[in-house]
Amino acid sequence: MARTPQSTPLLISLSVLALLQTSYAGGIAIYWGQNGNEGTLTQTCNTGKYSYVNIAFLNKFGNGQTPEINLAGHCNPASNGCTSVSTGIRNCQNRGIKVMLSIGGGVGSYSLSSSNDAQNVANYLWNNFLGGQSSSRPLGDAVLDGIDFDIELGSTQHWDDLARALSGFSKRGRKVYLTAAPQCPFPDKFLGTALNTGLFDYVWVQFYNNPSCQYSSGNTNNLLNSWNRWTSSINSRIFMGLPASSAAAGSGFIPANVLTSQILPVIKRSAKYGGVMLWSKYYDDQSGYSSTIKSSV
Questions:
Q1: Active site annotation includes 68
Q2: Of residues 152, 160, 161, 285, which has the active-site annotation?
């Protein structure tokens, strides 16, 4: 009588184990623009550390207001002083780095009063930062890759209308990427409805300044539970948004060795894993955080 090979179950087990241990590679997204001591956009991209750069922030818009961009100590948009940023945008894009304009932020005056208001803001963004035309482009004539929603105050409605309107411009030939930086409590009270549209390419969830869903000394449970909630609920590439140093946020900083040994190996198993987002370039310069984690992301 022929004997049944005993190796078959073992092979199946190893195959299942390999599937369970699939690890996805990601990139690092960085916010630039809120500290004049963080170097230029060109210098930022020339480090080779980042795959995505969010220029922060357009922090006044909507509800009939004249939009304003604030790049802290980098340049003065009121005197057309920020048009030179176009050189940096092109340099980054030539290196394969996607550059977004981040709208909103923790300080500013912005809101959307209606779907019509959202369309007006979308038209402004298209003509002044994306593929449209305007005589008053604050960052010059370079065409950004998309718009980042970092909505932390003001109205909670019509962000889905803005996302749809911006996405509609992709039909004109060049894709308009949409990204977002919601807080980790799910769903985000400002962006929950917008994220449900499924139009966002990258979502860098802020896993900091939110004790219920962030890392706290030695405890990864809340963080990982929240990560699982986001990746199971949102159909986008999800990034773990973190402070680049302990000084960059009120709470939620994760020591680099903890991130690389205890957290990244777990979250990289998700097919929706996109990488890590850091706030911000200035703090990353001080800490060297991205250099420490880059090979593990």
A1: no
A2: 152
